[in-house]
Amino acid sequence: MRNMKIETAKGHEIVSRLILERISSGEWEPGAKLPSVVELSQQFGVGRSTLREALSALKATGWLDIKHGGGTFVKKILPSDNAGGNSLFQEANSILEILEVRKLLEAGTSSYAAERRTDEDLVNLQIILNKMEHALLQGDTVEGEKADVEFHTAIASASRNSLLIQLMESLTQRLSETIGKTRELWFYQEKSTAERLLDEHRSIFEAIKSGNAHLANQLIGEHLTKVETVLKANIQNTKS
């Protein structure tokens, strides 16, 4: 196949479309492994950073699955044609509702956790943060997502309020289903890094550890509001 050369300020958008064309044409079938980043960069005539940005966009919208150290694969179940590459945002209202509930619920759990946490709670939260850091270093997104869910449920446990704990536990399945999507928004749409996400969790932990209920409440609110803001912006973009 003849290599191409793309020179544009938005090269990653063109590369994304070209990759989608190959998937749609059947050249790359569901479950198929794509060529390496180096090979794709050469084929499309773009730098590796541009190529990775295109791949991240397609992962965020449900077309690709990127496995650290294992390559990039076409999703076995593709977004519907009507999704137009924006399957994530077809579920936006559901995710937004979960985020709204979490903001209200976790405002309470984080505040009470700062006031009532035990040494055992702090040890547990630190262990979870260590898991998140290890997952980050290994590039293990699955374990990172699990640790993310564990962190928020552990804060609820530290609140020592049985009803709040039960309410948070009732959301655990929905959290597991959507936290991967919201993390993709964090990394792709906000252009943020896994390190920054980890730092935010650490800051929340430190506020709880220091017993600062107001700061814990504020930090967890800011943490959830960022994803909510980006998601709302993308909903608006898909309507325009």
UniProtKB/TrEMBL annotation:
It comes from the Bacteria. Residues 9-77 form the HTH gntR-type domain. It holds the Pfam family FCD. Gene3D superfamilies: GntR ligand-binding domain-like, Winged helix-like DNA-binding domain superfamily/Winged helix DNA-binding domain. The keyword Zinc does not apply. Keywords: DNA-binding, Transcription, Transcription regulation. The keyword DNA-binding applies. One of its GO terms (molecular function) is DNA-binding transcription factor activity. This is FadR family transcriptional regulator. The lineage of its organism: Bacteria, Bacillati, Bacillota, Bacilli, Bacillales.
